[in-house]
Amino acid sequence: MKIELKGSSYNTASKTLQNDSPVVNPAFATLCAIVFLAVSNNTVFYNFHLYLLSIGLEGKDSGFLIGMYSFAAMLMYAFFAKYITRRNACLTIVAGMVLIMVCGFLYVPCTSFYAILAVRIVNGIGVFLLMASAVVMLVTIIPPQKTGQAFSLYSVFLLLPYAVMPALSEVIIRMLPSPVWLYPITSLGLIPAMACVPYLNRKSKQHGMEHGKTQTKERTVTFRQAVHAGVFVLLIVNFVYFLGFSGMFFLFKGLAVQRAYAHAGLFFTVDMLVMIAVRLIGGRLFDRVSSVVLVSGAFVVTALAFLVLQSQTDQHWMYITAALFGLGMGFAVPPLNSMMYRISAPAYRGFNANMMMLTMYLGTFFGPFLGAWAIETLGYGMFLYIASGLMLATALFYIARHPQRYLQQ
What we know:
mainly alpha, 77% helix
């Protein structure tokens, strides 16, 4: 029996197959595992600020070195993201893993400002190569009609290391001759990840053919072509999100020491577990509820969390504040990424996804850098007040300039 699908019947069948495609498949799970191991190599630097102070560096120099990792990655995203495509993603992701592992071991002998600066720059380049390649593969693998769920699940694996590694690091460091040995040990986790890359590359090409993406010739994309006003709004909001997130992550340890908090690493365990729960439970919500409600509401809750952290100094309030941060920040990123996917032309989705990564690294450079300056100059109290005001201002900005109007373009 010969069955033919023609015209609109074929299109309807094709869309039905895409709608029925599961979000979680072996390729998606493999990519998430690689991303988890990659981000773990960043989250172990939770104690890097105090480590740098312990070897004689000043607070402002410490904040600069922490942020330089992200600054190097940001410059790479700005000038080289457009050159990473599905065709070369396999090679670039492996190159990134090699650089990260080499840098992990170089932290041990490097103790001067300029030596650590060089390692941080190369480390940032390695992270760019790995994460930019992963995003290019991601936008090929995910079902087009389930972007909210896909980005929600993907973000869970971006968050899991933040929930696990700070608390785990405090346990492991006690068994090491120096805290710096934590960095090379963690980097070795990328060896099994490297073995999975050929499989992931093969599946990425296969999914691209199934979704009809290989029919469009890949070309170099410019910022002016891809970034219209709606995209630019999302990039600004994403930058502010990671400005606040990274400032808290890399500088909270000092506040905890000042307030004599016990088990400070558990702050991020609670924070991230709440964020993960929000993204797992609210997966479908991100595709159905207006991003104006979700994003602006998330920033308002985050602003409240900064205020509570400033005003309530008791140990018990640490966990309540962590839950507030998890609730606020948990609702922000998936709708931002989903909206970016939806308002971007198909030819520019990979480029714009990497622009989101660029602003993420821009935020994670200025977060600890400006945060360390504010703390040293104004104290922790003013740092938290400023962060709260910035979050509230961003919520109002998104309400006024929300990009949903571009969905019909």
